[in-house]
Amino acid sequence: MVRIELQIDLNYEIDEHGADFVFNIHAAHTLSQTISAEKLLLSQPVSTRLHTDPVSGSRYLRASGLPGHLALTYSATADLLHHRAEPAQLAEVPVRDLPPEVIGYVYPSRYCESDRLINLAIREFGGLPQGYQRVMAIRDWVQQRVTFRPGASNSNTSAVDTLIEQAGVCRDFAHLMIALCRALSIPARFATGTDYGADVALGPPDFHAYVEVYVGGRWYIFDPSGTAIPMAFVRLGTGRDAADVAVATIFGGVKAQPPVINARAVDDPSRGMELPHHCREALSTDSGPLA
Amino acid sequence: MVRIELQIDLNYEIDEHGADFVFNIHAAHTLSQTISAEKLLLSQPVSTRLHTDPVSGSRYLRASGLPGHLALTYSATADLLHHRAEPAQLAEVPVRDLPPEVIGYVYPSRYCESDRLINLAIREFGGLPQGYQRVMAIRDWVQQRVTFRPGASNSNTSAVDTLIEQAGVCRDFAHLMIALCRALSIPARFATGTDYGADVALGPPDFHAYVEVYVGGRWYIFDPSGTAIPMAFVRLGTGRDAADVAVATIFGGVKAQPPVINARAVDDPSRGMELPHHCREALSTDSGPLA
Amino acid sequence: MVRIELQIDLNYEIDEHGADFVFNIHAAHTLSQTISAEKLLLSQPVSTRLHTDPVSGSRYLRASGLPGHLALTYSATADLLHHRAEPAQLAEVPVRDLPPEVIGYVYPSRYCESDRLINLAIREFGGLPQGYQRVMAIRDWVQQRVTFRPGASNSNTSAVDTLIEQAGVCRDFAHLMIALCRALSIPARFATGTDYGADVALGPPDFHAYVEVYVGGRWYIFDPSGTAIPMAFVRLGTGRDAADVAVATIFGGVKAQPPVINARAVDDPSRGMELPHHCREALSTDSGPLA
Amino acid sequence: MVRIELQIDLNYEIDEHGADFVFNIHAAHTLSQTISAEKLLLSQPVSTRLHTDPVSGSRYLRASGLPGHLALTYSATADLLHHRAEPAQLAEVPVRDLPPEVIGYVYPSRYCESDRLINLAIREFGGLPQGYQRVMAIRDWVQQRVTFRPGASNSNTSAVDTLIEQAGVCRDFAHLMIALCRALSIPARFATGTDYGADVALGPPDFHAYVEVYVGGRWYIFDPSGTAIPMAFVRLGTGRDAADVAVATIFGGVKAQPPVINARAVDDPSRGMELPHHCREALSTDSGPLA
């Protein structure tokens, strides 16, 4: 088991009209991710509502901010107990056998225009043996072609843009990998979380975007930007792409400061806790919420 | 009440590998749309599975077609009893008050890149009084700018393309109207159905794409292409955009013939049935399924 | 006559491989623009070649920079004696009567995708009386829709992007106006120069991008961003769009500092010099070089 | 020497307003391409003007068509005497040494967005030895990735679209190859001509689009679609991309029938004429006109 102690600090300046927020900063409740010791502090005396998506376990916090400064601090302890599998044993699931709640993830979305990439995906990956290994080949292909370069992309950048311009941040790597999987009818979705173990040269700890792909009957984690240690990702949300799971969707005139994120792994073998590390097994956080 | 007797005929040639289909041709079960006398015939002895989406009431049929010809005939009687409202009384719902299952419809999607249209939407519509009438102004704006021209667009065409090139079919009108609504944080979704009363000059009866917008606490029907009579639309599916609710999503090598669609209104005032006609009231089919 | 005393300072840091430059910072030699007292200083002892385009009079300086700092200073005096015309008397020229060297400017180019804007341009401007006034209507349309916002665009941004996103800098205003003119078969080209009289709130004096449109048998100046005084523009280059007339096209690894530009008008009525001011007459710098 | 006897038949229906045409169907006069026995017939008694571009030798015919049917027949004999070179001896020319009239062909253009492909081009081809062989590697890369499929593209399709969707016609292959060359600062241009020897499965003889790349101090022919025999191409025009050298640019309401093209090689060894065949040498038609 991996235990992560997490703290997220967000700061905004809201203009004179006030602004509405939808935050997705609560760690998701899933079968593999147990959350405890959760605290949420807002600097304004505003009412909030927390909604848990019944399918994904993602939690959305809505708040209406008043003009002026708004600070939000979220802290929690996340215990991660992944389902692990042998990569060679994870087969792709034929479209005819996909569960209804999964099939939407083979369709194109705002930032993952898989409908335009079908020829390319078939040419590059169509001849490979199907399964987890083919998905790994897609991940590697993306990682080899795209350069991590903050500032090279913006919030409008899509998978097609990234395929052409070959530079971006974790979100762009994720969108391109997802689009390629879907072009082959492999369900893939966008996940946001907190990273851990990222190269400090890439900047301070930040929110992270990565990919979950449905093979062998479960959603498995892939990290196409290759910047962090997947075993330590605390999942916040999953969706079609970044449009669905922005950490903060803001309606109104707001200036945001960079988030401050702290994710510390607890190293206590006596209690069965191990430090996060790269591993060759496939890791799944099981998509389901606590039923 | 409007009663529509419906028949849909689809024909495909499937290549030697066979193909998987997800059809969305069953009329949706909703509180306002009652379906009876339903029949489905397939020319191949293949097993099918029908899945009803618990939120939208849309029904998805999955089938694995064998090589060769596949014919599918669906017929049903749909009784439509719309919720009607006075347009002037339908206000927009602030983001903070949107139900959780509605909020996803203010986000951009594959064919509705609302994130790129915010400046434009605010400039064109930001000064208008909020409510149903503003949505009508968006509908009119789209209708005035886009020319109905089969062949001017294809399955990759998005709202941004249509805004630039100003020609397309009903699907393109719908995508552009949806994108503009979302750019103003008004929830809007894509609906497919069968049309009725369309100008014969536009071709034989066909599937139709239109828009539902969430105002006054319900989803109301809008027909930006202005080609048919909304009161007679039999709803098949709703989704983010055409990616979600294709009448047929096909995985494999298949040639499709044009669909043949027959929608006949029953004119029987003695049983409370009226013929579909244009009306100035707002019409809602209530988004909910039969709970 | 308007006399402008001009100084341009450019500074670059060149990486260890050196870099090639094509500068277009010399004021063009045209029938209306007489250049004197010209000086060019480079901080590196590198050989340069100056090429004058025989058609446009634009001058291109090529230099191969060595690793390290490269500073370039160009100064000159430009005497501007515009051809002036009464707007109401400037008719559009039918395509059949365009001179061969002009016809290329009705074709689409990298940043001016006029081929996609034909429906839109005809709908918006097709019913207006032809001539200079119609071009003014296009200029006003662009000015009303696009917001001047540094950082909203980048070097890949095209007219279609600007039409959608409605924000940009002078270059983007110019591209959109050019694309709309060409969509109506009105020849239009991109011009670079130095600005004068720009609102200081927009930042320090800078290079400027504006538009020349061929009506009444000559190229006339239009300033769609509306940020400066056209009578004082010192023309550097003209081309299809920004791809042709970058102030500096750089081949190699180079970091550029912001340019420092000084354009001072000489106020000496005794010698026939007037200060630049906005005027209602049409101004042409005559496209031709000193034959 | 290769002798081609050429006939081109074009047919149009012009609407009631008449229409202006700019044709580029005359075989270019160049040092390597000698034209004789030229005939032009128009079915309407309209005046025409023929303009020869002084730089490229391309000839443009302007005509104003009357309402109704317009038929145009052009026939000529073209004697092609290519400059031939050993591929291994053709080096790339550094930007600093490019002639002024060539440098424009490293800039991006409407259908060749080389500015967006720099990372990709460097990653794929940056490590290869420079010269003709690197250009061949680009040609092969394009040929391997793009599938020849009429109907997969339209007149708005650009190199970026083709890179993503990987299907198109000769024009699309050419645009993508050009964009990749320019992204590496190798001058490349679009050429139109008549093809010869194309696989009949691809359809009847047609106009052809191919590429000329500037290496070793000359423009050499490349045929990225690989559909015909370069030695027999009769050059009509060259330009930045298809925007510059449309076979017919039409201003007005016109319906075009498919062109009928006949290109016959004369096989007469006694007069030094050989039949066109694939050869491993580099072929140049010398860009210059008859000076």
TrEMBL record, chains A, B, C, D:
InterPro entries (alphabetical): Bact_transglu_N_2 (IPR048930), Papain-like_cys_pep_sf (IPR038765), Transglutaminase-like (IPR002931)
Residue ranges constituting the Transglutaminase-like domain according to the UniProt record: 162-226
Protein name (record): Transglutaminase family protein
Origin organism lineage: Bacteria, Pseudomonadati, Pseudomonadota, Betaproteobacteria, Burkholderiales
